[in-house]
Amino acid sequence: QVQLVESGGGLVQAGGSLRLSCTASESIFSAMGWYRQAPGKQRDLVAAITNSGNTNYVDSVKGRFTISRDNAKNTVYLQMNSLKPEDTAVYYCNAVAYRISWGQGTQVTVSS
Predict the structure, then answer these.
(1) What is the pLDDT of residues 29-51, one digit of tens each?
(2) How are strands ordered across the β-sheet holding 55-57?
C-alpha cells in the first residue's frame, strides 16, 4: 500500500514563501495533485501535475504556486510564493485520477 508523507508547512507572514514536499513510498505513474482543506471547508485540489510534467492550477493560486515533481525521488513539490491569509489550510498530496490513503498533511498558516 502506497504511503504519502507531506512536509514543509509552517507559519509565515503574508507575502512570504514556503516549499512543500510530498514523498511516496513507491513510484506513482500518474498525475499527482496538491489539495488543501481549511477549517470547516471541504478538501479541494489546487494544483496538479501529470507524469510528464504538464501542470494545472486553480485560479486562486495561479501565478503564485508552482507544482513540480521528481520521479526519481517519488516526490512532488509545491512552491508557494506571495502567500495570503486565505491560503491557510492543511495541505495534502494525492493522485488525481484515483485515491491513495491520505497522509497526515502539513499545516500552512499565513498571518496578516
Answers:
(1) 899 999 999 999 999 999 999 99
(2) 10-13, 106-111, 89-95, 32-37, 44-49, 55-57
Give CA–CA dist 104/92, Å, rounded: 7
> How many residues make up the chain in this entry?
112
What's the per-residue H, E or C state across the chain?
CCCEEEECCEEEECCCCEEEEEEECCCCCCCEEEEEECCCCCCEEEEEECCCCCEEECHHHCCCEEEEEEHHHCEEEEEECCCCHHHCEEEEEEECCCCCCCCCCEEEEEEC
Q: What is the pLDDT of residues 82-99, one digit of tens each?
A: 999 999 999 999 999 988
Residue 105 gets which letter from DSSP? -
80 CB neighbour count, 10 Å cutoff: 27
User: Rounded to the nearest 5°, which phi and psi values hold at 22?
Assistant: -140, 115
